[in-house]
Design goal:
The complex is a heterotetramer of chains A (about 190), B (about 575), C (about 250) and D (about 120).
Chain A: H1 5-8, H2 16-45, H3 49-53, H4 58-83, H5 87-117, H6 126-157, H7 163-188
Chain B: H1 12-17, H2 22-52, H3 66-102, H4 110-129, H5 152-155, H6 158-188, H7 201-232, H8 246-280, H9 287-300, H10 316-343, H11 353-376, H12 378-384, H13 388-418, H14 424-450, H15 469-487, H16 489-502
Helix pairs in contact in B: 2-3, 2-4, 2-15, 3-6, 3-7, 3-8, 3-13, 4-6, 6-7, 7-8, 7-9, 8-11, 8-13, 9-10, 10-11, 11-13, 11-14, 13-14, 14-15, 14-16
Chain C: H1 13-44, H2 61-94, E1 101-108, E2 111-116, E3 129-132, E4 134-138, E5 143-149, E6 154-158, E7 163-167, E8 172-177, E9 183-189, E10 202-207, H3 209-219, H4 222-228, H5 235-245
The chains are: A mainly alpha (about 190), B mainly alpha (about 575), C alpha+beta (about 250), D mainly alpha (about 120).
Amino acid sequence: MSKSIANTRSATGIPSARLITWWVIASEIVIFGGLLASYSMHRLGHPEWQSSAAHTNTWAGAFNTLVLLTSSLSAVLAHKAADGGNGAQAAKYLRLTILGGAIFLAVKAFEWTTEIREGFTLPAGGFWSFYYTLTGLHGLHVLAGMLIMLVIAADAAKNEELQRVECVGLYWHFVDIVWIFLFPLLYIAR
Amino acid sequence: MSTQLHAAEPGIFRKYLWSTDHKIISMQYLFTGMVMGLVGGYLAYVFRMQLAFPNRDVPGFGLVTPGKYNALVTMHGTIMIFWVAMPVLVAAFGNFLIPLMIGCDDMAFPRINRLSYQIFFFSTVVLLSSFLVKGGAFGGSWTAYPPLSAKGAYNLTPAGASLWLIAVVLEFVAFLLGGVNFVVTAMNGRAPGMKMYDLPMVVWLIVLASIMFMASVGPLVAGAVMLLFDQTLATGFYDPARGGDPLLWQHLFWFFGHPEVYVVLLPAIGIVADVLAVFARKKLFGYRTILYTAWATAVLSFVVWAHHQFIAGIDPRMANIFSITTLIISIPIAEMVFVYIATLYGGSIRFTTPMLWALAFIAEFLIGGVTGIFLGASGADIYLHDTYFVIAHFHYTFVPIAVIGTFAGLTFWYPKMFGRMMNETLGKIHFWGTIVGFNVVFIPLFITGAAGDQRRVYNYALFPEQARPELQHLRTLSTIGLLVMLASQLPFLFNFIWSLRHGERAEANPWRSNTLEWTVASPPPHGNFAEMPTVYRGPYEYGTPGRSEDYWPQNVPDEVLQRP
Amino acid sequence: MLQRFLTGASSYSHSVDHLIFLVAAIVGFWLLAAEGALFWLMFKFRHREGRGPQYITGEEKHLTRWISIPHSLVILCDIVIIVYAVTVWVNIKQTLPPAGQTVRIYGQQWTWSFQQPGPDGVLDTADDIRTVGELHVRAGTTYHFELVSRDTVHSFSVPAFRLKQDALPGRVITGWFLPTRPGTYDIQCTQMCGLGHALMAARVVVETPQEHAAWLQRASNPSLAAQTVPPATAVAPAIATVAEVRP
Amino acid sequence: MSNETHLHHPNYVKVWAVLVVLLAVSVLGSLTSIRWLILITAFGVAVVKAYLVAKNFMHVTIEKRFVPYLLVTCLVFMALLFAGVAPDVMKHSGLHWENSAAKQAVESGTHNAAPKHE
């Protein structure tokens, strides 16, 4: 299917694919923002949640931050490669990013299983409810990003749709930024 | 995001059900919305009959028990806002008009557009299926305040409550996908020469509505996830006994809920602006004034939400802030209405059916607007909150929006959508029946509300002050009005269906309008424009001095306009 | 104005009525003016043969006056309304005049119950009087209420008092009223609270000091009360109806 | 993306290295028991990290102006949401109201610091 003319026009000077990514990110900001605002005001009002928060694994969280930061690096390197027209290299970097996402989710799964074994399940208290909801929603975004990247990497390897590399990268950086705030909010704050 | 490439093989299925053409998707939204409108109207019929003739079998339904009554009012509210006003005003008109009016072939992302409708359709199925589950449909009112909505033990419809919530969230996702598409298309896809200030008002306001929707719905999506967990996974986000707070939901709901009013208002206002200009043969009185007041309203609407919660247990000092912001929002809206009225000055008004609807919109919306002042004034709201006064007030805003505004748009663009003219006589019968019926429904309700009738009550027998016969007469009168209003939709339905085949064939520009959609054949072919248009001026150049014609289409170059 | 629809029976019912009247007068004027202008323009500029439309952009100074002057007046009216509305609000919801008596109000699915001090005049003592569906108060005494919900959100509404306040589970919300006119008035629940929302009716009985003293005596002597105080309302059978409907 | 000028790509590895150092700072900060230090190294550093990612990886600063405005507007709306809701939800008492359930939860929670198993 050929692209719609509307898609190829760019009256704002921003290509449509990137423009829609920005709008998606804006709408995601308010989704995460609403949840984070709800969590923050509860956390500030409930000092007793500290005892629950102390059970999160700061080292696992820190390692995951490192993983996401690194995957952001490979995502932006993929963008650079795509910008230079090197689809094969872009695909390679995208797959590295996917690998980073996979490691992130694996660590997350390890954390969740440990915590659930210790009895800290979703309904085990206000902090845990927010913890699983926040990390779960974020994890879903990681997963979605990985799936999208899988498709885009396959196209990029054939030097097709290279502009999408940058867009999925933007999305990935946004997910990274969300985690940058989740890390102190859930693991460090006391 | 699907990346499969579909070959353009136009079978029936591909053409009408799996199409990525914005016009087809618009029709899908339109027809789904119209069917849901019939459902919502039927629900209103049932509960108004119960209120007029308590505890008698309602023809076509049966006995209305308290539980059924709650489900009826809940679903009426939910359906009319999320499954009628949103799909028809934002999605159907947005899909149909944006690409045509900005002069391009389709949405920027046609497949995301199709996905949006598919999710919406799925949400419709989920919502309707909740009528069939054990316990029946959700009855905790469309605001779904927890703990009532969170615990099956309280609402007695655990399955219905969860299905309701899932349906609403899916609907939000559908409109988020649709909304980003609208915004990007209008921003990027404009024809050469078309500046942002050359956009027809309806496009501007649908885009603004989509932006508002995007910016406000997020917290409620998060809140809905939390509520769903409360319902199904035994969390305690809204359970005070477990560190949660039921007020949180109310805030998240109304942080979205109030902008949502303007999300559906703005497209209707836009439709009215376009219809008004065409049939008054007048340039809008201050295009930019309308635009700026719309922006001001949009921004302000994010800081007024707690006026829905004055007496909900929020800190009383906060109520003062929200009372002030609420009255401030009346300033841009008043300005906007004045500008609409002023647009008629110096016009040459043709009272066609679409114009009647547009004028009725202004006349009726004024009533809805001014009665809002009573409720925004915190001191008066203590008494009027959650009475029928509120119901009458917001129906005087929502009916002009979702009924009158929609009919203004439908009758105006029908020739373009289907290539046939509608019957004017039937259109006028429909108009007068609807308008008279509508006023007879809701004027009595202002009075019963002022007399203290509280909402969502299936029978006032236990409240001597409310069970007075004079109030009961008013309720009966209101129900009679509804019957008139509903019966008046029959000529419309007949007209709509009959004209599809037998209406007079519409030429490309039957209303002699300026905007780009009228420069292509009716109905527009796939791809819309044989040759992509270039735009030379704004959309409202009517009655320009020195021209033989009283209109001046946007795509006609300047040199051609010298008289032949 | 509201008095015509429903009696006012508390010290602040008049201020609410006055506010509503003020708003009605102001917005009524604007509504009539705007509708008048709309219909006049519709008539004046209807299409007639030989008369084309004028070309007006809406930037002409002598014409924009017609918008900007009414608009400034609207702002002025808004300020008047805000000031009065906030005054009434502050008086009813924010100030708390000294209490003559304190009652506790419980909302639960689907009934209102009340706890008020017995002869000793102190709440939370052994002689407290607990009633269901009926609140007895003395005219001329300032009451504080502590509003509590036992399950979902309810809203305690006494239209004759012009009083309304939601009851939230987990919270105690304090407010006040001063009944002035003896009589029996409706108590409603105005927040959707489930199946029996429409059945959540109660009464507030405003009594003269003598009547109230007599009631107090009867109520604080349970054996006597059981015989002489029949439920004044049909609430009890209504609840039974709900119980049948409940699956 | 034919009509787009190629943007200048900064040295991304360098940016990444700075981010990792900042991460180390916040982790080290969390090991201390000085409350203000923990909060600054956690949230102050998070803001800096987010800014670095947005600036260098997302190129927000060289994007068309309205994009950063849009994102900031969304954040401002969230701040407004917080400001409007916190007086009711974060605080547990106010003018003529008291969230006794929340107060009780705080009290019982801080007394027996053991995790809640419900």
